[in-house]
Write a structure and sequence with these properties.
92 residues, mainly alpha, 2 strands, 54% helix
């Protein structure tokens, strides 16, 4: 992560979103958030899931669900090109 202060702000935004929308604040969700913001460029859900398997016990469903939460709070952007798998990128 390039700037620790900016990640802390992102984490605060996500935490506030989860709280306001009555979602649980789980370690897995924060691990996914951190991995997303460490990544440069576009990524897809399965690549993110595969990259996390060595360090975290997180399901593919949790990855997809967390990406939807991150979309809802405008911390990532989703790109869908035709029938291809959706690509995501950081928005903050």
């Amino acid at each position: 992560m390039k700037e620790e202060g900016s990640y802390e702000k992102i984490k605060e935004i996500f935490t506030e979103f989860l709280k306001n929308n009555h979602h649980r604040k789980t370690p897995e969700r924060y691990a996914i958030l951190e991995r997303v913001y460490e990544h440069e460029g576009h990524f897809n859900a399965e690549a993110l899931y595969n990259a996390m398997q060595n360090e975290y016990r997180v399901s593919l469903a949790t990855v997809y669900n967390t990406l939807e939460l991150l979309l809802d709070c405008n911390l990532i952007i989703k790109h869908q090109f035709g029938q291809q798998e959706a690509q995501y990128e950081k928005a903050f």
